[in-house]
Amino acid sequence: MKLMRPMVIPPFGEEATLARLPCLAWFVGLRRARRLPPPLTPCTEHANGDHVHGASIFAPAGAPADAIQTLSLFVLAITGIIFVIVGGLMVYCLVRYRRRSDDDGREPPQVYGSNPVELAWTVVPIIIVFVLTTTAIRSTYEIQAAPPPPDSLQVRVVGHQWWWEFQYPALGVITANELHIPVSDPAHPTPTYLTLESADVAHSFWVPRLAGKTDVIPNRRNIMWLAPAQSGTYVGQCAEFCGTQHAKMLLRVVVHPADDFARWVQAQRQPAARNPGAEAGRQVFEATACVSCHAVRGTGASGTFGPDLTHLMSRETIGAGAAQNDLANLRDWVEDPNRLKPGVLMPAMQLTQPQLDQVVSYLASLR
Ligand code: CUA
Prior knowledge:
Oligomer: single chain
Strand content: 15-25%
Low-confidence stretches: 1-43
Largest sheet: 7 strands, mixed
Radius of gyration: 26 Å
Number of strands: 15
Bound molecules: dinuclear copper ion
CATH class of the domain at 276-364: Mainly Beta
Number of helices: 10
Mean pLDDT: 86
């Protein structure tokens, strides 16, 4: 019997969802996957002390997610009351007027037309719909109309099949799949404004604990903002079907305290590290088609179809969250990206085993 290769599931968005559906997780064999880290609880402590937060919409970590939660709870309360009243009346009628053994089989008295009753079931629902609509419009308006403070951080987000590009034009930083932003003190908000564009098909940017979904549409610019009040890592996911690997178009938002964020920016602005031990790998990398899709700042590699690799090793994942960014997975990925992410647009470069080792050691030097 041929054993299936264990699925490599990262501790991110989809697993966080699956971890809450134990039967489904069991069904897809998640529990048996050998490289699977322990299931994510809503808040997991990482080995390095970082918190990785789950993806519950009921645990907002700042604006605008908290406004969305307030609205959701309000709508849930009203619809819940309607459900209890309607369901309760139905159960009462089913029990109270059920068929009994001593029924004489005659039709009960029929009532036709009642102005008060008809007025009530017309006017009350209209009022309910009016209240729900106006509160939703008000929340939407308050979120969308919030003007960016003059010194707010601006990030350009570009959706690609199947990864996220993050450009910080004012800071001269380009990275992928892991968005880094500063924490925003609710007393003095420092929101991050995202301009969302797509390089190919429609995607949707969604980090449940930070904000609602925003579509990422070709030939259009959408704007959204994030103002998380707690630092940590928040998982997210492309929320619009965009092709084969839509499910592995994961994203993470790393929220730093202000000084930490400044340090991250400083490190990202540096050109690629030059490591004499990785020269052979660099030559292989630059001699193959890698350079037509990937950029490594300070070298001849300047492609833009794939993620910028200048500081590849500063990212926790590869393949937009398809796997943890470690040497074993990196080697697997370069050897044949389709193994970790079937349908991925990055081809296998047909490197020999020694070339593969050299390229991986070069990539590992990109800190
Ligand atoms: Cu991108 Cu779904």
